[in-house]
């Protein structure tokens, strides 16, 4: 009997609700009609329980009618429970409370100092620190700039060292885009449009734009989805557009396309992208305008010509290293050099992506940046191409370390989202963003006061640049672009640390094309040999262990 009772205890709540319904109804009949309120509520729950028992979609509800819904309720608010109750200050999910708090404070212009020492495990593996100078400097002007534009560029751009990374209108709300762009205008830094093209809200804000051209060619496409030179020339002629960025891949989902369902396409999105209403909007994984490294460089040359000589570059997350070397060989063969390359780390991620892509596809930013920087050095063309970097770059320390590894400037998406008010609810793809940033719901995005949030964006940028200036001064530098790997130390094990030059060294200029070879770099030469300017495909499919070229010492 006990065993039987235990096996049916999962129906205890359902049974209690049924008894309550009967009891309250009888009480209403014989004692007080006010008990009908309880009867109505319990009857509704009883009906829900009956439905749970006979539905076939959720096994847990069939076995635990009524009470089983608590599981789904708790699961739906799990991110909030973790963020506000369970999560520690340094738990990265994906950004720690400490980092989010730093952005909020700098965006609001309130005290951002910390008392009582660090909470970092300074003796733990992975810890990195900046080496300071005994003769620090004071940098008063922290409006740091870098000129982007090579010898073929007729309209170079003096960019801030910290800019807003690619986020499209459509993924972000109108008020979010307007806040970001107005903030960029106030702070005199750039705002990347993302692949969704230039919307009316980018134009209304008046801030400097980096016009991103992706595989969907939004804003510059023919009806069949191919590239339209005429439409591109019109877009690029806008004085607000300062640079053109060809997107090859992005950190969140390298090698993966995307689709905006027809039901999410508003007239404003259709206007910006140049797409029809009532039809799914497809972003193919690959470009249809070129298929070879040489074709890619020729397309970059065409974009530069059509734009009137504005800086043109490309953005990618490093995958097959040989393929990037193929691009560099194509630069050498055609003589067409991009004005810039933006290296996106796989840890980037404002775009929703399958979990396998988010977690396991693409190279992290630090390694990708080092590889791109040294490949350009090895080919002897690093001076021709500026490098931007993106991927969880939020604090001044993040920026300084990225410069040391070879970047000329940095971009941030989620950092500026935090400045607008993002609470890391991680519901960006559901159209239910609680703060109105990643949604097209007009009621939700009303939560964003554009005037207030745009000032926060500008303050976050200004205060971060001030902190960067303080870091550079502490290292004895007059400009943060002078950071080198040796300014940083990296703890590899609990009892061992290395100089930055040992972990992320700068390889010799021209070593890939000089004719003489360095034995320690045999793997670089082997990969360079397999790269081709004519094709992204490998010359042969390896079926065994990779064999490096043997170089006589």
From TrEMBL:
Signal peptide: none annotated. Residues 163-477 form the Glutamate synthase domain. GO terms for biological process: glutamate biosynthetic process. GO terms for molecular function: glutamate synthase activity. Keywords: Membrane, Transmembrane, Transmembrane helix. The chain crosses the membrane at residues 12-30, 36-54. Belongs to the glutamate synthase family. This is Glutamate synthase domain-containing protein 2.
